[in-house]
User: What shape does this take?
Amino acid sequence: MAAITLLEAIRQGLWEEMERDERVFLLGEDIGVYGGAFKVTEGFVGRFGEERVIDTPISESAIVGAACGAAMMGMRPVAEMQFIDFISCCFDILRNYAATSRYRQGIGIPMVVRGPCGGGVHGGPFHSQNVESLFLNTPGLKMVEPSTPYDAKGLIKAAIRDEDPVLFFEHKFLYRNPKIKQELPSDDYIVPIGKAATLREGRDLSIITYGAMVYTALDAADKLKEEGLEAEIIDLRTLLPFDREAILESVKKTSKVIILHEATRTGGMAGELTAVINEEAFEYLDGPVMRVTSIDTPVPYAPPLEEFFLPQVDDVLKAARALAAY
Amino acid sequence: MSEEVKMPQMGESIAEGTIVKWLKKVGDAVKRDEPLFEISTDKVDAEIPSPTAGVLSEIKVQEGETVAVNTVVAVINGGGGVTKPAAEPAKEAPPAPKQEPSQQVTQAQPEPAPPAPKAPEPARPAPAAPAPPESVEAAAGEPASAEELRRTRSSPVVRKIAEEHGVDITQIAGTGISGRVTKQDILSFVENRGAGAKVEPAAAPSVAPIAPPASPGATPAPPRAPQPQRAPAATQAEAGPQPFAEGDRVEIEPMSIMRRRIAERMVESRHVSAHVTSFMEVDFSKTAKLREGLKGEFERDGVKLTFMPFIIKAVIEAIKKWPIINSSVWGDQIVYKKDINIGVAVALDWGLIVPVIRGADEKSLLGLARAVNDLGERARRKQLKPDEVQGGTFTITNPGSFGGWAGTPIINQPQVAILGVGVIKKRPVVVDDAIAIRQIGVFGLSFDHRIIDGAIADQFLATLRDVIEAAEYTG
Assistant: This one.
């Protein structure tokens, strides 16, 4: 079987779930005949028909609102945000309605809201954001961000089968990146939500990351190895609820931690993870927990500015060297 | 009445010293002039005697720490010693680490004491504990600086390991930021200690500032897990690639201060000078006879006569003829030294040191023999003064002590030449077309080709040979 891209893996996951379970349907802007802005759903309408691949008006709150209602009626909707930046339009429905439904009325909302996130493609402030921290503080939601084709397929399936709302972030820089293509097993597998993956073992420091930054971390780890430092890399895969055990286990082993993410710094995932490490593994720390993140500005359009904005391998190396010397 | 003990000024050019070992513990009685601690400076290791009699009440600078000259390192209480006014501020003294492994701390500060001293050292870093009232600095009660806290308290994981293993982290030479003890440092320390090399502050003098290597065979313990440890992080960048593979059976031991110094100096010298070595066979037969004749006479004076004083004599003759050998390079100038100060390398169990015979050209054979014996003896007992290991203008070393035929020594900067003396023993040589048995030694002269050409070096060696072969020593 040929190696496939992350985008193709998501496509396969959606396709197989729709084949497996007729309650699963898709809705979003231009996802039908056009196949979606990134062509994730290309060809779906031909196979599954317009009732299961629904082109919607340009209204994110309508899309997610409809999806919520359908989910409550027993369907398994998968709503696409053309760019994940637009998810803020449906903030009220997600935060006040979907996230609280199980608590308020004992009714889960088995809905997936998926869409492309992240920068590095010169998309500017409306088409490059990472939105996880907006929802990190919303109990009742789950958030997933795969970094490999294998995880993407396994996680989209797990998200569709989950009984509660899941936000599924697809890093557009990884969508068609040929370097990360993988051959996937032909059987029906899922990757459980809530489990991190240790992509590389190391004894000197832990780099906890997710999404496209996984590759920045891996590149940095190669260079650090030349300098005699063994970095352990934890790919969170699920951002909420994140895998405490995996994080703490790694921290206890290496005693030095970098948290790396592409989202901006203040109020980001890194701050939350730092707090957990501080509370639960303080006695194991041999240096300050370091954050390597984007800076607190909108995502710039200009390529050199965007490069400056996004965490680079050098930023990770700098933090790692400082930690090693600490 | 208390007296402060300060890091002594061990020589004009010495600005700081490292405490290698405390020979007394807090609470011990000390006599005046009784050895109190060992220091290591960039010139020499030495035992420092107590300036007064009394009880050692406070150790302010822990083993492995380096402080500026005149820094207060300890306080001795009571006794009839001369008490200096405590007001004299210790210039440049860094803030003293504020922890004392003494009961005084627990008295002075009603901090919840550890439940029971489960470890050999009841020491426990007390956060910015007020030192006894005698101490001037402590009275100010300034909050500890971040650097100081890093050094004395390190990090949560290090404190945890320290508590589990009963280690006083101030005893460990830290490789982290501000001299902080890192997790790796303390794990290596614990591991080395566990391997049978116990670190006891009051034990017999030893050089290593931290845990000496485990002596194989000293412990019947099974071979330890081949867990490779990486070198201290701070030096990682300079240390280069790890010289072993994962899973290799290795043991890593930090270099002593002396060893580090030797390592730096040797590499530096190789870098500075254009080293070339020439060899010359020298017939010692006549000198050997002369030595036999003088031996008894010298012994009556309590002096052991080796070949070394003769060689020094010959070197002085040759230097007088070829003065560039006794010079230094200074930019694009050559500095000819009018004093002839001969360094003689002494091998120690823990390294190497080169005491210097000053004004060697003014000494008789007996005087030289006495100086060689005395300096060698005191080097081995760590009693050299720093001034006795500096100012050399030419060095002689002895690669033949264990039978080595010859050597290519490294120049002792800022000198420009060094003589390596191979073993002197009977060998067959051709004399007047006959084979004769002669006492032959091979000289290897390493010289700095920047200013000394091969011809000069060879002629210097020839002069040396002629003097020794004729056994005509002046003075």
Notes: Confidence is low (pLDDT under 50) at residues 80-140, 196-237 of chain B. Residues 454-470 of chain B form the longest helix (17 residues). The two ends of chain B are 55 Å apart (CA to CA).
